[in-house]
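Researcher: Next entry in the queue.
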Amino acid sequence: MATNILIRTLLVGVLAVSMLAAAKPTKKSAVVTFATQTMIVDAFAQGTVLFEHDDGRMARGEPCTTVYEFDATTNERGRVIVEFMCLPRERPVASKFEAICSRAAIGGPDKLVEYQFAGDREGHGVPFSR
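Model: Structure for this entry, 130 residues:
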């Protein structure tokens, strides 16, 4: 009887440790600089910004991507530029943060279509509007 309890306790401990080791971080972020004015959903960004993706918010059906102004001299995020629910897409693993943009009109601003974090298999499609 005592052996069974000991074995069960060990199994629960091993299972708990393996689950913690396999857990992915729920938030990812990257600092990015847009050299030109770039439209993200229905807002404009230029200069240094912080992209943050929250898997927990995505699982709850909430806006999972937030883009903030970012002050590179103080390493602090500023006001929210835009929040939106991304459109997850499987992609090959990215070696660096990637921002895929298109241009709707000649001379117009770039429009962010998708972004992907370094080391991640998931691309995050950007909706046309909120």
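Model: The first strand starts at residue 27 and ends at 40.
Researcher: Noted, moving on.
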